[in-house]
Amino acid sequence: MTLILFFIFSAVMCIAIVLFKDKTITRIITIGYASMHILFTIYCWANLDKTELSYFTYNSLGVLLLSVLSFMIIPTLYHGFIYASADNSKRYSIYHAALIALMSSMSGAYLANGMTVLWIFVEATTIAVAALIYHDRTEIALEATWKYVFICSTGIALAYLGILFLGFIYGRKDASNLSFTALADIINQANPLYVKIAFVFVLIGFSTKMGLFPMHTVTIDAHSVAPPPISALISTTLMNVGFLAIFRVYTLFASSSILPFMNNVLILSGVLSLLIAAGYMLKAKHLKRMLAYSSLENMGLVAIAIGVGGGGYYAALLLIVLHSLAKSSLFYQMGQLSRVLHTFKLDECGRYMKLYPAGALVLLTGMVCILAIPPSGLFISEFMIIKGLVFNNKWFILLVAIILLCFVIYAMSTRILHIVFSDPLIDDNGRLPDRINPVESISQFVLLGIVIAMCFYQPPFLADMINQSFALLPKWLL
User: Fold this and answer.
1) Share above pLDDT 90 across residues of the chain, in percent, rounded to a whole number
2) pTM of the complete model
3) Where are the alpha helices (DSSP H) in 309-375?
4) What's the mean pLDDT in 360-371?
5) Residue 189 reports pLDDT greater than 60
6) CB atoms within 10 A of CB 261
């Protein structure tokens, strides 16, 4: 009952915002939604493993990722209010209605206990994100929106083909449902060829959301034009939706004979993601695109971690959580940087430490965190991945990954240091920077502080939730 009320109230709030078209009412409703979402997340924690409406289960992984989204709602709304403050009432209401629709769709995807329901909510996120990408109504935004809709729709169609192959597992009998529990009971009776094809299609299809090779291009253009708070969600909680879809299927198939096949496919996809990220970051001239390729690099590491198995599962889930906090803080800061420097182009950026010291400190701290340099908590995840590759004697993969990570570190650090300390390479035509209240950066310091604290201490409740998320997977190294 609680879940259906959550979805009903979310829909009513979206409709009310669009109908009233008043900024004050929109802010009140949006804050009310944030409070409702946080209370709903608490309810999910109190009812772990409970199933509602037959199609949703509050399992460990879903609730963990829902908690990450709930934790990010307040700073996302706060920075969104600032970003959209100059918009007219119509555009302001569309932005926040679409934002509520996006967060509700992601919440449904996290908690779905079957492939069909998960697929429906993933498709719903595409529609909501499209409205947000097109927020500024520019020609470039329109082009990026159509690209996003087309590529995502293609990817979701491929994922649907994977779901159809899952249906073949039932043989000639009609599949009563495609819940993960029902499929787990018969997976070992399935034709391995069908299972392999299903996994490949699901991986390719949902990689549009996870931002993983081969469908990684869909998010890059979107980041260039989307409002910074929306980029923060696309690059973190929305990527987590894609990860969850792939990880659910991986967990389902892990007890079958195709486990080595899945591991090899994930490692290959992860290495290629690292290669593309490193190559494009070295030539990136747009700051938000650079951060988008950084997300591709992190998702590549997640794929490698899952493919390694054993301790790699813990590393992957910890990396997903910490990446969400670190990357979102950098995208929030991009909104402030654009108001100070009036650009996202690297050559036009510089002297940020002089113009806005608080923002410069966010960039420097965020750089250390996202590059997994101690004391970043991401260092623990990457160390566990390297350890897993060593124990599995995957020396070639380890060597390639380390070399590519060195390129990533060089590319991002030189660009961030240029923004913070160097003079712009191209004159800004004398445009005066806006004054930013340092209070706006508090949320980013809080998020980055948590990432750093996780390097030294991981709360037992977090470790337990992560361990429960892969409890059904093989514990040995593969």
Assistant:
1) 52
2) 0.92
3) 311-341, 352-355, 357-370
4) 95
5) yes
6) 16
CB-based contact 447:329 (threshold 8 Å) = yes
Element (H, E) at 445: helix 442-453
pLDDT of residue 172: 46
301 near 267, Cβ under 8 Å?
no
Counting Cβ atoms within 10 Å, is residue 27 exposed (0-12), middle (13-18) or buried (19+)? middle
- Give the model confidence (pLDDT) of 303-319 as tens digits: 999 998 888 899 999 99
- Nearest C-alpha neighbor of 323 from the set 454, 457, 130: 454
Looking at residue 380, its pLDDT comes to 93
395-420 pLDDT, tens digit each: 999 999 999 999 999 999 999 999 99
Query: Structure tokens of 20?
Result: 């009233």
CB 135 within 8 A of CB 230: yes
Q: How many residues does the chain have?
A: 478
| Prior bond of 214 cis (ω within 30°) | yes
Under 8 Å between Cβ of 168 and 161: no
- Spatial distance between the Cα atoms of 302 and 267, rounded to a whole number of angstroms: 9
User: What is the residue type of 133?
Assistant: I
Q: Which residues pair with 112 in a beta bridge?
A: 56
The one-letter code for the residue type at 330 is: L
445-to-325, 330, 365, 453, 455 alpha-carbon distances in Å: 10, 10, 8, 12, 16
pLDDT in tens, 107-118: 999 999 888 888
Query: Domain residues of the chain, as ranges?
Result: 1-257, 271-478
Q: What is the largest CA-CA distance in the chain?
A: 72
